[in-house]
Amino acid sequence: MDDSRSSPSPKPRKPSAWTNELVEVFERSVTAEYASLTRDGRPVTVPTTPYLSADGLTIDVSTGLTYPAKAERARRDPRVCLLFADPVGSGLVDPPVVLVQGLATVRDSDLQANTDRYVRLSMEKLPDATKGQPRFVLRRLAWYYARIWIEVTPLHIRWWSRRSLDEPARSWNAPEGTAAPLSDPAPSGMQPGAWLAPPSSWRVAAQEADRLTTHDLTAIDANGFPLCLPVQRTELVEDGFRLILGDGAPPITAGPACLTMHSHPEAFTGQENRTIIGTVEPSGAGMRFRAERALADWSLAGGRPRMAVSFLTKGRRLAPRLAMEAQRRFQAVPTVRLPDRP
After folding, report:
1. Which are the contacts of 159, defined by CB distance < 8 A and separation ≥ 6?
2. How many separate domains does the chain show?
3. Which of 24, 177, 180, 220 lies at a C-alpha separation of 20 to 30 Å from 197?
4. Helix (H) or strand (E) holding 142
5. Which helix H or strand E contains 135, and what residues bound it?
6. Is the pLDDT of residue 62 over 60?
7. Is residue 285 part of a domain?
8. In the 8-state DSSP scheme, what is residue 271?
9. SS3 56
């Protein structure tokens, strides 16, 4: 018997308004692009693992307690979006591309429950990520497993049959008056600063464009929500990129934007991400993305030994934050409680 006190995850209940094909995408996708807004209204988009909530009413993502920026952006401005356009590892054959725009609720008032949930669900969904790891080692990774959850209440969903977006989208709208619950109160004190240095130039990240298979553009729509869409073709130009989107993509107006590139193997053991911030404007038959800077990224790539060294290096930087972030929320440092072996 192990030290787990968690219970098996309940079967999600499908909201009657969502079709089975959408629920399947939400449940089985290994990654989705999650976009939130900075204080000055710029979108920041990063791939993360989505989880359908137990009641089937929200689509949830998490961020580490020791690197809470994704959650704090959503707490300040709950307008977020999720793009499901990467079927790698899902086992789905030709799934639709799904864009979810909604309101975020940040949950960090019970860090132990958050951690228990993340340990259980991540090990169920991404078993290869911890395969072969000694359990005593996993129990020492509270700096990673301690989590903040972000629950996304969908307001508007659009989906296309193919990533090419070569046809008009189908759509679903939440009932009039739909609102998301309020986030938990913000923690006391100052949010921790950046823990990774960004690349010296956006061109460093741009060099990976051809190698990373999934490219997605995030702009801002007329209602101030992030709007994330798959890119069909990316061409590096002097001041950024020329982008081609499908004919069925919604109109994009000029303004702040984010270009995200990522890739991961079918059996999820790590991923590579690059995020470039800039502005976008229509240009001929495509879009012109003018790059300004690249963000620091958390990539784990290469063979298992290389990834292990990279992970431990990140842990040495983040572990000292764990007690501080728990204290800011007036809670004890959570314990990693592993599920029983089957």
Report:
1. 22, 96, 97, 98, 99, 169, 170, 171
2. 1
3. 220
4. helix 142-145
5. helix 135-138
6. yes
7. yes
8. B
9. coil
Which residue in 61, 57, 55, 108 sits closest to 82, CA to CA?
61
pLDDT of residue 189: 87
Confidence bin at 99 (pLDDT 50/70/90): very high
CA–CA dist 111, 116 (Å, integer): 9
Q: Calculate the average pLDDT of the chain.
A: 90
In a domain, 207, yes or no: yes
Q: Residue 3 — pLDDT band, cuts 50, 70, 90?
A: very low
Confidence of residue 284 (pLDDT cuts 50, 70, 90): confident
**Stretch (H or E) spanning 287:** strand 286-294
pLDDT band at 312 (very low <50, low <70, confident <90, very high): confident
Query: Tell me, what CATH number does 235's domain have?
Result: 2.30.110.10
Residues constituting the chain: 342
Cβ atoms within 10 A of the Cβ of 317, count?
Answer: 13
Burial of 27 per CB tally in 10 Å (0-12, 13-18, 19+): middle
- Strand residues in 15-174 grouped as ranges (E): 32-37, 43-48, 51-52, 59-64, 79-84, 97-107, 147-160, 170-173
Give me the sign of the Cα torsion angle 35, 36, 38, 41: positive
Q: Is residue 7 part of a domain?
A: no
- Supply the pLDDT for residue 285: 82
Q: Work out the number of other CB atoms within 10 angstroms of the CB of residue 163.
A: 20
Tokens found for residue 144: 């990673």
What is the residue range of 268's domain? Answer: 20-174+194-328
Q: Are 84 and 50 in contact (CB under 8 A)?
A: yes
Quote the CA–CA distance of 236 and 73 in Å, as a whole number.
Answer: 30
b/e per residue 225-241 (b: at least 16 CB within 10 A): bbbbbbbbebeeeeebb
| Residue 8 reports pLDDT greater than 60 | no
